[in-house]
Structure formats: structure tokens, C-alpha cells
Amino acid sequence: MAGEVETISARGPMDVRRVMAALPHRYPMLLIDRVVSLVPNQSIHAIKAVSVNEPFFQGHFPTRPIMPGVLIVEAMAQAAGVLAVESMNLADSGKLVYFMSIDGAKFRSPVEPGCLLDLHVEVTQNRGAICKFAGKAMLGDKLAAEAQFVAMISDPPKD
């Protein structure tokens, strides 16, 4: 049905293996652990379990580890990428999602080791190969970060 939420129980688990089928990112840059729900062409709810073993915590900051804001935005962007790939059935197409701009990024609460980062991304405009998104990163009911971004779906560059 159009607009029906596709949850883990309705569609089978969208665990990290399915996320990796949708995204080209790999360790240490893969920042999505699983997808909780996805409404094609509308929204996605994804999870990032933040571990003290993340490599960025070695230098940001050794005495008080905090996830860098740019990586929180990257996690939201990756969730948007999964949404785009799944919505347009692009997993085996070879096409990539390239981010073109980020606007209005705001960081409200520090994300520390042990946190479960809930990533909520909505499509705000879709013009074929170019989409606009609004994302929020939540720590429970507390806003950690938010941003708007634009992405383009394209073929990878030729060698």
C-alpha cells in the first residue's frame, strides 16, 4: 500500500548487511547499524550504536569522548542514502548518492560512547535525480543534531 510503513517485521530485518548492499561505505565510515522503518520516498528511521571503540574517539576527545558533529551529519546523510536507494530500487544499479549541500546544521547535545543514536530523515522535495532531505539525530527524546541537505543520484565517475 502507498504510504505504508515498512518495518522490520513487515519487510524482514534491514540489518547492517542490507545497509551495506545499499551504501558503498565500509568501516570505519559506515555509520548506520540498522534500519528500523522506511516509507519509500518519504522517511527512514535508522540506528547508530555509538561504541567507545569508534576510531574517532581516540582524538575527539581523549579525556571526554564526543562523536564529531560532522559524523552525526554524515550518519543522517547515509540514512538518506539508504532511503533513496531503497525507494528507487538502485541497490544493484551501480548508481551512487552524492551529497551536494548541507544547510542549517545545529548541534544540541553531545553524543557519547554508549549512546543509541536514532536517525530520522524525511524527503522534503524530490525532483527525480535530486532530492532534499531534513534530518534529526535523537538521543531518546532529546535532539542531538539536525540538518537539511540535498543529494544527487548519479553514475560513479569513469576511471
Automatic annotation (TrEMBL):
Q: Which UniProt keywords apply?
A: Cytoplasm, Lipid A biosynthesis, Lipid biosynthesis, Lipid metabolism, Lyase
User: Which positions are catalytic residues?
Assistant: H60
Q: Which CDD domains match?
A: FabZ (cd01288)
Record EC number: 4.2.1.59
- Give the reaction(s) catalysed: a (3R)-hydroxyacyl-[ACP] = a (2E)-enoyl-[ACP] + H2O
User: Which is one Gene Ontology cellular component term of this protein?
Assistant: membrane
Q: Does the keyword Secreted apply?
A: no
Q: What does this protein do?
A: Involved in unsaturated fatty acids biosynthesis. Catalyzes the dehydration of short chain beta-hydroxyacyl-ACPs and long chain saturated and unsaturated beta-hydroxyacyl-ACPs.
Instruction: Write out the similarity annotation.
Output: Belongs to the thioester dehydratase family. FabZ subfamily.
Q: What is this protein called?
A: 3-hydroxyacyl-[acyl-carrier-protein] dehydratase FabZ
Q: Which organism is it from?
A: Sphingobium xenophagum
Task: Tell me the classification of the organism that encodes this protein.
Answer: Bacteria, Pseudomonadati, Pseudomonadota, Alphaproteobacteria, Sphingomonadales
What's the encoding gene here?
fabZ
